[in-house]
Amino acid sequence: xxxxxxxxxxxxxxxxxxxxxxxxxxxxxxxxxxxxxxxxxxxxxxxxxxxxxxxxxxxxxxxxxxxxxxxxxxxxxxxxxxxxxxxxxxxxxxxxxxxxxxxxxxxxxxxxxxxxxxxxxxxxxxxxxxxxxxxxxxxxxxxxxxxxxxxxxxxxxxxxxxxxxxxxxxxxxxxxxxxxxxxxxxxxxxxxxxxxxxxxxxxxxxxxxxxxxxxxxxxxxxxxxxxxxxxxxxxxxxxxxxxxxxxxxxxxxxxxxxxxxxxxxxxxxxxxxxxxxxxxxxxxxxxxxxxxxxxxxxxxxxxxxxxxxxxxxxxxxxxxx
Amino acid sequence: xxxxxxxxxxxxxxxxxxxxxxxxxxxxxxxxxxxxxxxxxxxxxxxxxxxxxxxxxxxxxxxxxxxxxxxxxxxxxxxxxxxxxxxxxxxxxxxxxxxxxxxxxxxxxxxxxxxxxxxxxxxxxxxxxxxxxxxxxxxxxxxxxxxxxxxxxxxxxxxxxxxxxxxxxxxxxxxxxxxxxxxxxxxxxxxxxxxxxxxxxxxxxxxxxxxxxxxxxxxxxxxxxxxxxxxxxxxxxxxxxxxxxxxxxxxxxxxxxxxxxxxxxxxxxxxxxxxxxxxxxxxxxxxxxxxxxxxxxxxxxxxxxxxxxxxxxx
Lengths: 321, 314
Known about the structure:
The structure holds 2 protein chains of 2 kinds.
Chain A: H1 2-21, H2 25-58, E1 61-62, E2 69-70, H3 81-91, H4 97-128, H5 134-142, H6 149-160, H7 165-172, H8 187-212, H9 215-223, H10 228-239, H11 241-256, H12 261-265, H13 274-282, H14 288-320
Antiparallel strand pairs in A: 1-2
Helix pairs in contact in A: 2-14, 3-14, 4-8, 4-11, 8-11, 9-10, 11-14, 13-14
Chain B: H1 3-13, H2 35-58, H3 75-79, H4 89-122, H5 126-140, H6 143-157, H7 165-176, H8 178-191, H9 194-201, H10 206-235, H11 238-243, H12 252-261, H13 267-294, H14 302-309
Helix pairs in contact in B: 2-13, 4-5, 4-7, 4-8, 4-10, 8-10, 9-10, 10-13, 12-13, 13-14
């Protein structure tokens, strides 16, 4: 009721605002333009220009003597030198990128699905059933969101050491005879690290979306004789499809660019991800141009999911208002 | 009988009530408390919080191990004359750098983002909507790619901005300016235009409407976004990892990463992580209390304040 009322007054205000604003558009606009100007200049210089610089370096040359990249700003004079070198890495004789891309996709898919499988029930419980203890649950649920990523990785490094508590517990239970070298390059350790690292962000989105579902829909399902499982499958899950998509995007996008989790939890070449390729090339003289090419390709591959995400958040903010 | 085991037959038999003799189980109360879900949630919470609690504990370890407890001490914080956070110049510099970057970034990004949000929201046109799109897009681009762009712009084009504190601050402001911009825009939508128009009808010029009406109404949102910017700078890793140049401008997150990866781990890193944790929690507690105080006249609960401070609702 209250939400509907708010929406009505909002629409009315919007309509009135439009007709009211038309009276002196020029004078008013100038004021808003001046307010927005610093941000617009900032975004131009430090978002639009930098992304053009990536293109200019990707299409530029490499200084033969010192190995630093030479940016070429005129698109007509872009060379394909860096692109062909990058192509060598992908399909040429010394190709190494293919398996890394496949591994990145597998790790990210596994980790984000695990995030969803763990995060959804927990967020669902807190949003719907926590009752009077909601604040307590929410504080505990959000707390990891405020803990630094590095601290949370450090926590697992401590636990997974050969003399750490995980190995001690496993040996105490006689599940293993020798301590497992968890940090020696196991893919499963990296995937679990990714899940642990990114799940707080996902849970927050899931909670906010699930909390917005009107319990009346669910009660209606129950009143019409559906059991718990069916109500969930037929009512709650379809209603939360949008929020699941948003939550997956919010974890998948940064995970794809992750290069530190595997470095900390494995550090071997057997768990290298796409982010490591770009990060390594960035810090190696002579390879920075290729790093720019891979960044451009990476960005192109992500443009569709990113726009999906922007549209999804726009839609949900419109619904919320 | 666990809930899942009981739920499957309930699904088969309980859909049409009173199906007669075929029913093996009595239909269970659909409003009963979901104990299985609650247990799962508790397990999740334990899994998400206990490892970090143990890492905090090991920052007090009286030994060099991060995994075997050797008694309580303050040596990694200040007692050790060489290797403690207080006395090791690199550790000390990392704490100072994180704090410095958080303050610089918040002081620049919040006014910039708030003014941008107000201007963009009211100035309807092609330019404003495309820059709003740029702002939101910069919010969702993976941080690594954003960092690569920043790294190249400061090493190839704006070379007078050297890698270091200035580059880190510029990068962090750009990366975080979306918080105030998005939160303030969301708040503007919920406020509506009535107050603004009432003030304008009473003869107030736009600047006065802004100062006397809009800014007071927006204060909670601005405050919440400042809390978010400050704490996300504390936790930031990728941008500062790519934009730092030497140990005097390496913040805590990067220091922990490089030392642990280089095999120089030790409880001193846990101490750094604990300091980050305390900083973040202090900011959040101040933020929560401040937000509740500012919105004390409004309807709304502690839950709403919590989710706002965590950035999920405007």
